[in-house]
């Protein structure tokens, strides 16, 4: 069997030699979807921005990382980002930095949400994420702690259409009591104003009521890889290797992305 990369290359060749696409499609920045066959495989969902011949930077590839507070998202993202060629962006961390930024017009608003365990409006969070993505040399992003509710999801879908594509969602499943214990321990040294019993009660509530429906939304789209977060960090890391290799192989090709299914 040919490797996905080789299949992809032959698909690219077949496109440039035989596919005629209207010029005005190339003129637009919006992505277009192409489909074709290579051998016994159907290659689809090739997203193109700009001209194919100019080899422009394609859509950002995104893996969302979700789970309860303390489920281990940040710990694992830090471990895997280098090995698998991602940049890790933590929505919570970006918000904490913005809250501290001198002269930020959003500082107080963010602080209120962090203390309450409620979710900051998407316009703020999404623009912080977008700024990091645009300034990064990377094209593949692990976005940790986003989208946390329907407002996040809807805002992202509008703002990122034609800019980023969600390839997969990693869901760290971990019992609430374990999550709370971990955050309380972290609170002894983290300096985080929300690692305390009162904020955690609200954060767990927000996770159950607002974030779980988002995970279910992506599960219905077949994008969710669920990970048992209630194990040692090393066991969790090992269990991620295989799914991440698959993402890397199938989704994160240099200029464009593809999906291959057997005929
Ligand atoms: N598998 C694990 N077993 C035990 N402790 C862990 C594990 N993973 C992470 N921790 C510890 O639990 C705490 C929370 O981990 P981490 O910050 O990765 O969680 P998170 O899901 O990113 O949390 P949050 O969403 O609140 O930022 C940290 O102190 C971390 O060292
Ligand atoms: N999409 C997001 C992500 C985070 N926040 C706020 C609210 C969270 O309680 C807090 C901490 O996030 P964490 O570091 O636990 O991922 O940040 C938000 O409003 N919207």
Automatic annotation (TrEMBL):
- Residues annotated for a ribonucleoside 5'-phosphate binding in this entry: 96, 118-120, 145-148, 192, 203
- Region (LID) location: 185-195
Q: How is the cofactor bound?
A: Binds 1 Mg(2+) ion per monomer.
Please give an example of a GO cellular component term from this record: nucleus
Q: What enzyme class is recorded for this protein?
A: transferase
* Residue sites binding CMP per the record: 152
Start and end residues of each stretch annotated as NMPbind: 90-120
Q: Which residues bind ATP?
A: 70-75, 186, 231
Q: Where in the cell is it found?
A: Cytoplasm; Nucleus
Cofactor dependence is on: Mg(2+)
Q: Which InterPro entries match?
A: Adenylat/UMP-CMP_kin, Adenylat_kinase_CS, P-loop_NTPase, UMP_CMP_kinase
Explain the purpose of this protein: Catalyzes the phosphorylation of pyrimidine nucleoside monophosphates at the expense of ATP. Plays an important role in de novo pyrimidine nucleotide biosynthesis. Has preference for UMP and CMP as phosphate acceptors.
Q: What is known of its domains?
A: Consists of three domains, a large central CORE domain and two small peripheral domains, NMPbind and LID, which undergo movements during catalysis. The LID domain closes over the site of phosphoryl transfer upon ATP binding. Assembling and dissambling the active center during each catalytic cycle provides an effective means to prevent ATP hydrolysis.
Family annotation (PANTHER family): NUCLEOTIDE KINASE (PTHR23359)
Complexes and interactors: Monomer.
HAMAP family per the record? Adenylate_kinase_Adk, Adenylate_kinase_UMP_CMP_kin
What family does the Swiss-Prot or TrEMBL record give for this protein? Belongs to the adenylate kinase family. UMP-CMP kinase subfamily.
Q: Write the protein's name.
A: UMP-CMP kinase
Q: Which organism is it from?
A: Plakobranchus ocellatus
